[in-house]
Amino acid sequence: MTTYKEINGTNIEAVSTDPANPVVGQVWYNTTTNVVKGMAATTAGAWATGGNLNTGKQETGGCGTPTAALNFGGTIAPGPVTADTEEYNGTSWSEQNNLNLARSFLGSTGSQTAGLAIGGMIGAPTYAAQVLVELYNGTSWTEVGDLSAAKGNSTAFGTSTAAYSLAGQDSPAILVNVEFYNGTSWTEGANINTGRNNAASAGLGDSGLLVCGFAPSAPGRVSNVETWNGTSWTETTNYPVAVNQIGGSGNSSTSAICFGGTAPAVQTLAALYNGTSWTVTGSLATGNGEMGTSKGIANTAALCFGGNGPPTYRTQTEEFTGAGSPLVQTFTDS
Q: Which DSSP string do the residues of 236-305 spell out, in sequence order?
């Protein structure tokens, strides 16, 4: 029989009082009450149906919160890229002023009134990666400082004045480079450890997360996760499954949620990250990839919209209502 120590690397701790701030999965023996206790997650969070986008799209950009989201760009049926922009108020989507340049596979971050559309790829016949960056001010899009290097299929986290653009590709190269935006210009930062595209990210400031993606050097889809501390990238606990085209939301490397993706079929799996481990939570109603997502909020809420379904060029929106606070559970022999 496998023991607790063999699984976790330590014996169950004996304490006279319950720990003040236990983490999910922590187990201890209370010598005062003579019982074994542990910190358990509450019931998994659930996904609810939100208002549909006005235009179905995949490979689309997104940012903002579940009650104030922004969607832009992507690919629409039967295939052209779009400059379409929509705002979400927690109930319904409304059409807004378009991007200046139609493109898909954008990096995206920020808020509904200060959103960044980063790089991306234009349509046929070239499908060329772009250096263009545009800023949305709640009304219209304005070109701001270009990336140092063109990229599509990238991801991003942060705000419109402190943003990170990472991973992606400039065909055929898969990128490891990271660039930081200070509200005016981009500068090169520390590279990620594993070059990849179609990854997810989450974070604000100097606390970020890069999850999964497609890495030909691996080769193929990876479950690798890297955290950013303001100076360097560090490999951490892998995601439960190797996927690309995955969605992600969160405000730090200790509070993130990722969902969907392809492995190779589209996935419904969603999992929460607490800085140490992943906990599977309620699944998407329908498998999805290449979707738009919320950004910059804790993992107790999230938004997933558009994507490649089924069906492709989705209009559907799903809203994550996070699990409640963890609770202390007393273990018995029954």
A: EPPPSS--BS-EEEEEETTEEEEE--BSSSBB--EEEE-SS-EEEEPPPSS-B-S-EE--SS-TTEEEEE
Flag whether pLDDT at 315 surpasses 90: yes
Q: How far apart are CA 230 and CA 63, in angstroms?
A: 22
Q: Where in the chain is the domain with CATH 2.120.10.80?
A: 46-321
**Rounded mean pLDDT, 184-206:** 97
C-alpha span between 61 and 83 (Å, rounded): 10
Domain 46-321 coded CATH 2.60.40.1180:
no
CB 31 within 8 A of CB 14: yes
Q: What is the pLDDT of residues 78-111, one digit of tens each?
A: 889 999 999 999 999 999 999 999 999 999 999 9
The CA distance from 250 to 233, in Å, is 17
Q: How far apart are CA 175 and CA 217, in angstroms?
A: 11
Please indicate, yes or no, whether the overall pTM of this predicted structure exceeds 0.90: no
